[in-house]
């Protein structure tokens, strides 16, 4: 179930805007598809990233997936809790399973993302 | 015999848990020269403070331990092992005897050519036989595995293009390619360009034509492809690629379907690798040693790794066979010595046993066996590509998935029926793939048993899916927790 | 028709099932104009008796340490192979099994490899090891790739005292990548330390072999220090038997230890199959190439083993894999595990002590021959270099006539060493063997001098 109040991308990331920052993670749908997540490479803090760039990779037992930055800006924080327990992405994808915080460079980029309803439509199909 | 250790049940303890200080399994003769005081002669700065912690076991204990481990393995000598693209054929025992001969096993690679004429003659002979079988002109036995052969092939392509002005930057692979293909070309400094297969599982020739340009150094093909289907438009494909000045490489993993029937060199391939541990019956060893020789057409021969076994019939050196080190255009070396020579010995004896007729019958029977299985299983499982298969074919467990059973579960349940599972989830373009390659060394009776097992499982998926989902139950251990393995990362026994 | 069970009758039944009249119809995709209709020009078919005769005659044309008194080494050694090792590796349950994709039916292979990984980790002192690589040479190359990936630098420093075969393979593996290889010069057979620091600047990795090609013990600590100071990784190619007594790579702070494991229970085999091994710290675990076996449990709590961290490997990562390696050297790794289990802690130590004792006895005995001296002064393990008053090639020729192979001629590999011989001694050599070599060498030199 996609959470209301968040924005979504086609590549299954979610965004929560907090002031000038965007908190980013993987959707519930994505974590279900990936299966048990065993490792996530920590996104580089301080790194400048453009929308569509690879933010990091996440691994399950039998697959690796890339997570794309949904917005451009500077990576100001990464969720260190995922180092010890990457399964938080599975159990609490919108809460404790957050992945990175990006300081927004261009707020209008958010307008191009999907609402929860639009994302639900996408994943239903 | 199993031992309870805390909450964990241990079928066979590791060697580190067995044994006892003071036990030894091997004795040396007494030292017949004065014993060196290591500290005095080497200096304390070089010495270890404590010896490494190794197990202390007697010889009978070692034999028991590894015998019990052996008993936990499925293997080709026991029953069918239909792993697609692995060619798990019977491993003739005469091969083992040949490789164990002192004159081969005991031979040192630094031996003067004069004193290893037999070995160089064998290598020279095998290289010639592989070239003849495949329609190539020159073969190097140096790569110690298929992936290494691919790397050598890609480096040869690079050297060839460099000589022509620039190495180019891309290599095309179909989306059905074995993972080693894109991995190897990347090591050779190329960018992998993947093209989608067409609806019939074959290369989309138009898509290929649109993608090939003068930045493409080579196209890597498997033929028959990883779906077990022969690329019937292969000549067109080769023309398109050659037209752009690029090379066509054959991943020879599926050569078993072509022996004596069609030679890649005749079709137009420029270079290829062979898997001696697949097509040429050398045993797989649980994951090696293999051997992946690389074969090329004459115009690429100068680039092969050095040294090359050579023959001088005039014996100007005083002997006939020698290693040619004078290869200035060679890509270099992919192995410290000459490759896995003892594996080459096994391929050599295999070819001698079969002869030209025998080789052709291998391909004929391999393809017959696969088609027979395909015919017998296509009603119970989805057949994504319904045409004539070659030595292997792919089923899809999509029908079973609707009942909640996946290819993985079918594979595990097969273990309970005494067969090894086929390859699963490869090629990536088929959902719930089961890739089956029986090989020519399975009898019709063995195939019929396999069909019965697969049919029984298909029925179980309908009527009793829990049996399949809970499989295997007759193997020493049940389904293993791979998530835990990836999280705990216990890759080394620690004393707890 | 050897190895094909189906009879004509079986085939007819199967063809009928499929609905075709002949096997020929099963190849519709093969273009008619390239269909091979000829007879392949290969020998055979031969019966087992004929094959046996033929291969024995080929094998009979090769001389080994059983027919000749051989002191050949240079990375491959004719140590004694315990009978149990061959017994275990000949078991079809091990040899005719394949890659353990279905772990539940492959626990034998998987556990034996887990044990091998653990043995490598203990010998090197490092935390994790992989399931094997093709040989020591490609292991060094793979370690260099690991370092390049980890540091994102394009420079590799390799000691010139690293075996020539290893340096050749390293060079080939890196030839297509944007990587510069710098060879560090040697002084008196060892990696020269003055100026070494500067050489290492910007290096992804620094590679040293210990014992080196000349059998000498390298200043590993200083090499590691220089690598660390430059922000690169240190890679040590080490000898597994020597590690019974020598300081381990971990003791020196080496990042990646690799080496050739052939001496652990495998015959020379004319150079293959061999056994590459690699061990490193947990920090680099995800960058390790090749297979890694991990322990886990099943639903009933039974301990089992599986291939793990497969997401590094080619079948998942494809072009982004840590390496292209698929098939490795599993059966040879099994041989090593059996070998080390038989020798154990005390046995391996005793073996190392015997080797050092015999090699030093030999070095002294040979250096006493008039005109012969030890080329280098540093401590050595199993091999040493003699400088002769005649060309090594000539000495070898003469001694060969007496049924002796005194060693490897260094002049093929290093300039200015045409009179040098690399002599290798193992536990199989007796005092008499060495004395025989010494007198024969003396005779050759006296004769050459006289002429």
Structural write-up:
The complex is a heterotrimer of chains A (125), B (496) and C (451). Chain A is an alpha+beta fold and 125 residues long. Helix content of chain A is 19%, strand content 34%. The model of chain A has no long low-confidence stretch (mean pLDDT 88). Chain B has a domain of 256 residues: Aspartate Aminotransferase, domain 2 (3-Layer(aba) Sandwich). Helix content of chain B is 36%, strand content 11%. In chain B, helix 6 crosses helix 7. The longest helix of chain B has 37 residues. The model of chain B has no long low-confidence stretch (mean pLDDT 94). Chain C is α/β, with parallel strands linked by helices. Chain C folds into 2 domains: 114 residues, Aspartate Aminotransferase, domain 1 (Alpha-Beta Complex), CATH 3.90.1150; 257 residues, Type I PLP-dependent aspartate aminotransferase-like (Major domain) (Aspartate Aminotransferase, domain 2). In chain C, strands 2-10-9-8-7-3-4 form a 7-stranded mixed sheet, with helices on both faces. In chain C, helix 6 packs across helix 7. The model of chain C has no long low-confidence stretch (mean pLDDT 95). Chains in contact: A-B, A-C, B-C. The interface between A and C is small, with 7 and 6 residues.
Question: Overall 3D geometry of chain B?
Answer: globular
What is the residue-averaged pLDDT of chain C? Answer: 95
CATH class of the largest domain in chain C: Alpha Beta
Helix percentage range of chain C: 25-40%
Q: Identify the CATH class of the domain at 96-351 in chain B.
A: Alpha Beta
Calculate the terminal CA-CA distance of chain B, rounded to whole Å.
22 Å
Sheet having the most strands of chain C: 7 strands, mixed
Total count of helical runs of at least 4 residues of chain C: 14
| CATH fold topology of the domain at 96-351 in chain B | Aspartate Aminotransferase, domain 2
What would you call the shape of chain C?
globular
- How many β-strand runs of chain B? 14
Strand content bin of chain B:
5-15%
Number of helices of chain B: 16
- Low-confidence stretches of chain C at least 5 residues in length (pLDDT < 50)? none
